[in-house]
Amino acid sequence: MKIYFIGQKGIPATIGGVENYVENAAVRLAKQGHDVFVYTRYSYSNRRRKNYKGVHLINLPSIPTKNLDTITHTFLATLDLLRRKADVIHFHSIGPSLLLWIVKIFKPKTAVIATFQSQCYRHQKWGVIAKMFLHLGEIMLCAFADLVIVPSKILQHYAARRYRLEPVYLPNGVTLPKKQPTKLIKKFGLKKDNYIIYTGRLVRHKGIHYLIEAYQKLNPNKKLVIVGSGSFTKKYVKELKELAADNKNIIFTGQQNGQILSELYSNAYCFVQPSESEGLSIALLEAMSYGLPVIASDISENKEALANNGYFFANTDVKDLENSLNNILAKPKVAKKMGEKAREHIRQNYNWDYLAKDLVVLYKEAINIKQQNKFISKKVTANKFHLEPK
To answer: I need a surface site. Which of 42, 129, 346, 360 has the fewest CB within 10 A?
Structure first.
């Protein structure tokens, strides 16, 4: 199959859940012998790189501002797609899907798949006009995609109720990692089990300010490590550092990936996910895959991912988060067992090796129906996909 991924910033992934999703899917599909193409942005990827682990990279420019980066890149990628032969075109997220109708019109025999990653318009960084276009992108995705994929059952129920369709539930996944010793992270003054960790973008809806406020009230003997960078959110990043108030035990590492990120996960005492809203958090799944005990806000998406394998605090409630941190710090043996349960939960339910196989089945079904010149019925295909325990 010739498969094109559109909407992501690029691969290899350095930041972003969508980028992580695309990298894991694309690399596995390429290993299976499929011809896989991923559109990348000048502002994110090395424009000279044409191939990554068997995946073809098509690097195109964009207007790198908060409101125009995604849509300008998607527009150029969509135009480029029109001249190419494709069996499957896979859009990611509601923003890029604003332009999905173009390929539907000009490539009517190509299977167009779209992953509804999250309700991005809930994120506080967007203004009124941007939120309006994101809502419109959601409508385009659900109305025009031949098949809609959702990473959570929460979104599955929402899309079914709102748009009267039955999307395919196929969650985001992770690769079970091997734990790493402390080598590179020593430069941050970190040792095994002597720090609490948050990883992700430094944007307001991620709730990092609640975590810092709760930590400042605790004065624990463990450090707080915040891993990540802003995303057109310089003002918020400045606010976070002001909240830290020169506390030497609060460490901002900036964006990290590869070996150093693996070490940061491997040696943390616990992970905190304080988000006000999520789709299905890759950072949360990664933390669980390392066997870390997790404290998360009690939003539905976090509850679905963690099930009974973590600790929850009331969303936006600093005092409740403080109490949860106190509890997990006071009971290291209990916390460790919870982390082990979380890792096993990931192995059985969010394993990319199984998810990629399901994705291939989905693509093949979509192509087969397109070749028969039939409309793809979401109700027919939605319930055919499930994960098989390892």
So the answer is: 129
Question: Whole-angstrom Cα distance, residue 383 to residue 267?
Answer: 39
Let me know if 254 is exposed, middle or buried by CB neighbors in 10 A (0-12, 13-18, 19+): exposed
Neighbours of 275 (CB within 10 A): 24
Query: What whole-number distance in Å separates Cα of residue 178 and Cα of residue 181?
Result: 10
For the cut 90, the answer to whether the pLDDT of residue 237 exceeds it is yes
pLDDT, one tens digit per residue, over 119-165 is 887 877 778 998 999 999 999 999 999 999 998 888 999 999 999 98
Q: In CATH, what number is assigned to the domain containing residue 335?
A: 3.40.50.2000
My answer on whether 341 and 356 are in the same domain is no
Are residue 328 and residue 238 in the same domain, yes or no?
Answer: yes
- Rounded mean pLDDT, 77-85: 96
CA 52 from chain centre, in angstroms, equals 20
SS3 293: coil
Query: What 3 state SS string does 203-226 have?
Result: CHHHCHHHHHHHHHHHCCCCEEEE
Q: What is the pTM of this model?
A: 0.81
Instruction: Say which DSSP state 99 is in.
Output: G
Tell me the mean pLDDT in the region 181-204: 93
- pLDDT tier at 388 (50, 70, 90 boundaries)? very low
Residue 389 lies in a domain: no
> Which tokens sit at 190?
């970190």
Query: How far apart, in whole angstroms, are the C-alpha atoms of residue 266 and residue 179?
Result: 5
Encoded tokens for 209: 């300010």
Radius of gyration of the chain (CA): 21
CA distance 83 to 265: 43
The residues near 343 (Cβ < 8 Å, ≥ 6 apart) are 176, 288, 289, 290, 291
Distance CA 135, CA 150 (A): 16
Task: State which residues form the domain around 150.
Answer: 2-173+351-384
Strands 2-6 and 88-92: what pairing? parallel
